Amino acid sequence: MNSPSQSLFTLTQGAGGLPKLTLFAPDGARAEIYLHGAQITSWVPAGGAERFFMSRNSQFSSDTPIRGGIPVIFPQFGTTGPLAQHGFARLMEWEFMSAQAIATRASAVFSLRDTEDSRRLWDYPFAAELTVLLGDNQLAVTLAITNIGPKPMTFTSALHTYFAVADLAATTVENLAGIQYRDAAAGWTDHQQTQPALGFMGEVNRIYFNAPAELCLSEPTRTTLIRSEGFADTVIWNPSATKCPTMPDLEPTDYQRFVCVEAAAIGNPIELAPGERWQGTQTLLA
User: Could you tell me if residue 125 is inside a domain?
Assistant: First the structure.
């Protein structure tokens, strides 16, 4: 439990000299969020252990994405449009707006606006807000996007969550039976999940469309419930022993230490009229 004198948050210099906010919940939970990308890089529930994977090869620099935690994907998922992979929000400096304690929880809010550079890539004025709510063995992350421009805009998005796992071969994602998915590892072909649980015996790179609102990441010694609201789809990814060594910001065996389960809006891109607002939330329960 935090002492009455302990700060709700600290804002310090993190890896690579990038500013990092550490948020403390009254119940003892904590999270770390870099202003670069508004990226959550750590979540430790009260009395628990670290739940997120972070690559030791991640380059903490202002022009490079951070590998691990929860990258914010906006306004394009993957290579589904004309922008560079996963858009630009994860590469931009967000502004820390506020933090507050709410009973046994703590929240922090970060904001991002379009810039001249972003409009050269994607010519739409927008206001983005990321809210992190921490405590009671939960982490809720809400991404809100408002169209502040004069014309309609369309985007795809995701919260690209890297969960730390101790034994990949014994890890499964459950509650997927009957769900349609697109398999990037099998040439972007479409399939239907036949088993309720997905294991990781090789490369997994799937977009599950209209996924259940609650999934379970099951490990031998713990489970994590993953709930989503406003995000219709779920992406599940692990690069396997084959792909992992080809990625310079991962160590060759890092694939054994994480599974990505991502709340996403891909199959039906979000369309916002001028002045309209959308939000999606991913809630994790330890």
Answer: yes
Domain, as residue range, for 93: 9-285
Active-site annotation holder among 32, 129, 203, 262:
262
3 occurs within a structural domain: no
Q: In whole angstroms, how far apart are CA 192 and each of 22, 83, 207, 217?
A: 41, 29, 11, 20
CATH number where 266 lies: 2.70.98.10
Q: Is the dihedral of CA 248, 253, 257, 260 positive or negative?
A: positive
Question: Model pTM?
Answer: 0.96
158-217: pLDDT as tens digits:
999 999 999 999 999 999 999 999 999 999 999 999 999 999 999 999 999 999 999 999
Q: Is residue 61 part of a domain?
A: yes
260: nearest Cα among 228, 241, 234: 234
Length of the chain: 286
Please say if 191 is a catalytic residue: no
According to DSSP, the β-strands at 126-135 and 105-113 are antiparallel
Catalytic one among 86, 129, 160, 203? 160
* Catalytic site includes residue 160: yes
Q: Domain count of the chain? A: 1
